[in-house]
Amino acid sequence: MGELVVLDFETTGLSSERDRVIEIGAVILNWMGEIVRTFQTLCNPPLIEPLNPFITGLTGITGKMLIGKPSTAEAMRGLYDFIGTRPIVAHNAKFDSKFLKAEMNRINKSVLNQFLCSLL
Known about the structure:
single chain; alpha/beta; 5 strands; about 30% helix
């Protein structure tokens, strides 16, 4: 048995086409369920509008918190290296997989990892 990645995104909204990732949290677990490595960062995407107050209320993330943080593109390059080819587990994997694919597409990367959903 190998390792897997548990992944969670916070985003500016629900549409992976127009909204962006603003926080990444991920851990690599070994087959015993032990944390091997972690990856966490806020991201500063190019935003056309300020963060929606609903998103700030839901996530606790403010626009000021994103100032000076890595660009979403930079953070995604780091995440790409972090996850490798490991299977990915996410709560509501449909949501996270759409955002992962959209953000990776923006940096000309492709992620073909198997996704498992803890919600299902």
